[in-house]
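<purpose> Linking amino acid order to shape
<body> The protein record starts here
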Amino acid sequence: MSTSAAATEAATLLKRLRLEAVADRRVGERYIGSSGQGLSGGEQRRLALACALAGEGGTQKSKALLADEPTTGLDTFQAADMVQLLGELGKARRCATILTIHQPRSSVWSMIEDVLLLAPGGQSIFCGPTEEAIAHLEGLTFR
């Protein structure tokens, strides 16, 4: 990939991940004691995603986008934004998007198409469309 193509891809990725406004910030400035403002928790999560996606390069794209607890430590709006973004990226890349999320907020739950719910010990208690999960759990006498 040429330098200009790589720069264009990087700019597109920054725009897609809503990091353009902070592209020139140092990641740790907030913690170094600098007078500058560092990246927020949500920005740091999106930056980690950008770094992972930027490493793909070329024509070889992932068949799945995997994210382990991408909403941990994020507020309600940032968590919903991250899940929406991951879903959009998966659809744009035509690949499966698989997330592990513990106790998702209702705003995040409503964005999930299919779910695998695990009981303690890793036993599967439901696998299927999200809109069917509540009725299934109620049938098992869970509220």
